[in-house]
Amino acid sequence: YQMNRKIKEDEDSPYWNPFFQQYADTSILSFSNTWRNILYWNRSSTLYDFQTGYIRQQSQTLQTSGFEMREIQDLTFRWRVSLRKKMDIVINARKGMRGSRSQNFAERNYDLSQYDMSSELNVIIKEKFRLTGLYQFLSQENMGGNEEFSSHKLSVESVWRRSSISDIRGQVSLVQINYTSSGNSAIDFAILQGLQNGSNLLWSFQFNTRLNTSLILTIQYNGRNTGGGKTIHTGNAQVRANF
């Protein structure tokens, strides 16, 4: 459990009590708390392992337009089993909630009920090449509105470690979205996360290499074609120094 807060204290506030939360909204400058619990079973085994967890995050900030609140809850399950020496399959399931509240902009309020399930197959070839195939189904529904979302995602990712100082990564994803909207752009953005209704194709390429003992160079390219619109290309390069 972790908590951070910044508040306007007064004589009646129990400032000595770190768990007191019944402050007036106008007294809270910023506040966040996180519950994170994860239970592992057979974690170090090369044959199989289970993992289940519960995460809850709450935050509130005071802005010039009033306070805004965010809440996230996730109940997760993960199961990994080894099919062969260098091949395994991973099953993930999650049931969650995303909530948002704005003091003066009610059109930004939403409560998203979410459920997603995915399976991935990992294969290691000759110790230097890893290939991952993923299928994911995601369902979202706004409990305070008429928005409904479902998506199917197919993804292939590869990693090639050329040597101990460099590697190349690539990924291609196809996301098919079926979304019913009431026309609220703020909620649409929160649900779609930059994607569009219909077919979405995304791809990326990344090259990492160590220039010397202190400098690491990263070159990255991303492309996307969402909802039949124009293709967007972005690229960046970064040099990191470790001291």
Task: Characterise the protein shown here.
- This protein has one helix spanning 185-192, and strands spanning 2-7, 28-41, 48-63, 66-84, 87-102, 110-125, 129-142, 148-163, 166-180, 198-210, 215-226, 232-241.
- The chain is mostly beta strands and 243 residues long.
- It has a 12-stranded antiparallel beta sheet, covered by helices on one side.
- Strand 10 (198-210) and strand 11 (215-226) form a beta hairpin.
- The two termini are 32 Å apart.
Explain briefly what this protein structure is.
With 243 residues, the chain is mainly β. Helices cover 3% and strands 69% of the residues. The chain has a 12-stranded antiparallel beta sheet with strand order 1-2-3-4-5-6-7-8-9-10-11-12, covered by helices on one side.
Secondary-structure element sequence? EEEEEEEEEHEEE
Radius of gyration: 22 Å
| First-last Cα distance | 32 Å
Helix content: under 10%
Main sheet summary = 12 strands, antiparallel
Kindly report the spatial arrangement of strands forming the biggest sheet: 1-2-3-4-5-6-7-8-9-10-11-12
* Proportion of residues in β-strands: over 45%
- Low-confidence spans: none
Number of helices in the DSSP assignment: 1
